[in-house]
Amino acid sequence: MGSQVDRLPTLVLRADWICASPERLFGPGGVEIEGRRVRAVWPAGSALEAACRRAERVLDLGPALLSHAPVNAHAHLELSGMAGRSLPGPAFADWVRGVLAFRAERGAAGLAEDWARGLSLAAAGAACAVGDIDATGAAWRAELPPGPCPGVLVHLELLDARDPRRLAGELERLEHLPEAPGRLAGLSPHAPHTVSQALLSAAGAAQGRRARRVQIHWAETREELDWWQGRGGPLAEWLGQSPALRPGRAPASFLDHLERAGLLGPATALVHGNLPQPGEPERLAQAGVRLIHCPGSHAFFERPGFPLERYLAAGVELALGTDSLASNRSLDMLREVELFARAHPSAPPALAWSLATRGGAGVLGPDLATGELVPGALAHLLAVELEARSAPEALARLILGPRGRRRLWIGGLERPMEP
C-alpha cells in the first residue's frame, strides 16, 4: 500500500466540532492531512482557510464531531464465527467448553475466514487498530479484507494448563513467531492460572529480547480465585492442585508470578481485572502495567460492577476493548464506550473517550496509533454526525448518542463502514 499512500492528495477535513484530544475540544475547525499523517489541527480562522487553499482536496463534514478514531485494545477475532452461539450468563466454565468445541468444529480454514470477517467488523465498529489474541494461527493464515484495514497487534496465545507434557510444544511456538503483512507480533501468556511458571518465564525472556508487547488475562472470574486459594471449583478439574497449597512454598499472588517472570512492567497490559485484591491496583500503577476493560463482555457474563474508582485512584492507565463475539453482541467501539459510560454515570465523557483512544493507543504502541490528533500522528480519524450546541455537548452525544452516520479514515484513507 506504500505507493498508493505516497500519492495521496493533501486533504483537509472540516467539521462543526473537533476533538483533538479529550481535553482539547472546539468547533468549528479542521484537520490537515498529508500522506498518512496529521499535519495540523486548526480552529476556524485564517490558518484553516490557508490550509484549505493549499490542500488538493477539502471535505466539509458539516454537523459532525471529528476525532481520533478509537482503538479496540483487546479482541479475539478468530472467534467471530461464534456470534449468537453463546448464551449470556455467569456460567464461565461452560462457556470455555463451548469455545473449545467451536474451535475444533470450525477448523483452521474456517477460523481464518472468521478472523478476516472479525477485522472487517472491527473496522465497521470504528476501530483504527486492534489488539488481537490468536490461539490457533488464524490471524497469520487469514487474508486481509480489501480496503484500508485497522492495524493489528497479534498476540500469540501461550497456554500449557500447567501440564509439563504441553510445555515443550508451547516453547517451540514461542521461538517461531509468524509474520504477515498488516500484522505485528506480540505475546499473550493466557493467564497466570493457566500458564506454568516455566512458560511465563520464557515469555518474559522473549519479551525482553524483542521488546514485544504482552497481554494477559487476569483476575477475570471468581472461579480462578477460588481455585488459587484452595476452594476447589470447576478449574480444579483442569488445573489440578493450586500451587498455593503445596507444602514448603510461601503463598504467592498471581501478580507475584508475573513479576517473577519479568512480565510486570510497562510493556504488559492485563485484561479484565474484575476482582483485584487489596493493594493490587497500586502495584499495577507502580509497575506501569495497563489494564484493559471490556464492558460488553462484562455485561454478557453478568459480572458485578467493574472497580473503576479503585483503578483511577491508584493511577492505573486504562483502555477499552470488545473481547470476542463469543461473549459480546458486537465489535463496535462506540457501543463499548456507551456501555462503559452508562455503567459509570459519574465518569465524565472525556474519560470514556480517553480510554477508547489514548488508552488503547498506549496499549498497542505508537506504530499503530497515537490516540490524539497532533502533528505527526497517524491519520486515523472518525467523524460522527450529531447535533450539539457546544463542544462538551458534542462529546457527550458521541458517547451516549443519539449518533448519526459515521466515517472512518485509516492512515489517511477512508474505509467504507459496511462490514
Key features of this structure:
419 residues; globular; alpha/beta; 4-stranded mixed beta sheet; 6-stranded mixed beta sheet
Overall pLDDT, averaged?
93
Helix-strand category: alpha/beta
Strand content: 15-25%
How far do the termini sit from each other?
A: 20 Å
Q: Treating each run of at least 4 consecutive H or I residues as one helix, how many helices?
A: 15
The residue fraction in helices comes out at 25-40%
Please compute the radius of gyration using only Cα atoms. 22 Å
Point out poorly predicted stretches: 1-5
Main beta-sheet strand count, sense and barrel state: 6 strands, mixed
Number of strands: 18
Strand order of the largest sheet: 3-2-7-16-17-18
Global morphology: globular
Concise overview:
The chain contains 15 helices and 18 strands.
Question: What do these coordinates show?
Answer:
The protein is α/β, with parallel strands linked by helices and 419 residues long. The protein has helices at residues 2-6, 46-54, 92-124, 138-141, 164-175, 197-210, 222-228, 236-239, 254-260, 280-287, 295-300, 308-314, 333-343, 349-364, 391-400, and strands at 11-15, 17-21, 24-26, 29-34, 37-43, 57-60, 64-68, 71-75, 129-134, 151-158, 183-189, 214-218, 268-272, 290-293, 318-320, 381-385, 406-410, 413-415. The strands form 4 sheets. The chain has a 6-stranded mixed β-sheet. A 4-stranded mixed β-sheet has the order 5-4-1-6, with helices on one face. A 4-stranded parallel β-sheet has the order 8-9-10-11, with helices on both faces. Helix 5 (164-175) runs parallel beside helix 6. The protein starts with a helix and ends with a strand.
